[in-house]
Design brief:
136 residues; alpha+beta; GMP Synthetase, Chain A, domain 3; 2 domains; three-stranded antiparallel β-sheet; three-stranded mixed β-sheet; 4 helices; elongated
Length: 136
C-alpha cells in the first residue's frame, strides 16, 4: 500500500502561500501559510496534520487491540497536541478517552501499553510522547 500527498508553495517562507492535496482529496488545495503554521491564520499546517495522523492511527490501533482481546469500544476519542519548539517537533501529548463495556482497568491498561508500543505513526515519530488516559 502506498499513500501520497502534494504540497505546492509559492513565494517566500514568510509572505508566500501554499496548498496541500491528498490522494483521497480530503485535502484538496487546502491553504497553508506562515500564519496558519506559526500564528493563528486560516488554513492547515504540517504539525496539525501530524497530530491528526497520530490521533487517527492511535484510535484505530486501540480498537484493533481491544477487539483482539475480546472487547468492542463504544467510543474512542484521541486528542493529540504536537509541540513545535526551537524548529523541531519535541512532544506529542495524547488525551485518550474510551468507553469500553465490560473491560476492567487492568486489561484496558494492558491494551494501552500494546498501542503505545505498536501504533505505526507513533513509532515513526522520534519525539517524546505523553498520555492522559481515561476509561469510562
Amino acid at each position: 500500500m502506498k499513500r501520497n500527498a502534494t504540497a505546492v508553495w509559492n513565494g517566500t517562507g514568510k509572505e508566500g502561500t501554499g496548498h496541500l492535496t491528498t490522494q483521497s482529496t480530503t485535502l484538496s488545495e487546502t491553504q497553508y501559510s506562515f500564519n496558519s503554521r506559526f500564528a493563528e491564520g486560516i488554513g492547515t499546517n504540517p504539525e496539525e496534520l501530524v497530530a491528526a495522523a497520530l490521533s487517527g492511527c492511535f484510535a484505530m490501533k486501540l480498537s484493533f487491540v481491544l477487539n483482539a482481546a475480546g472487547f468492542t469500544a463504544e467510543t474512542i476519542n484521541v486528542n493529540c497536541t504536537i509541540t513545535l519548539d526551537g524548529g523541531a517537533l519535541t512532544n506529542a501529548h495524547l488525551v485518550v478517552n474510551a468507553t469500553v463495556p465490560e473491560i476492567d482497568q487492568a486489561k484496558f491498561d494492558e491494551c494501552m501499553e500494546d498501542v503505545k508500543a505498536n501504533c505505526l505513526i507513533s513509532k515513526s515519530l522520534n519525539i517524546d510522547k505523553t498520555y492522559e488516559v481515561s476509561l469510562n
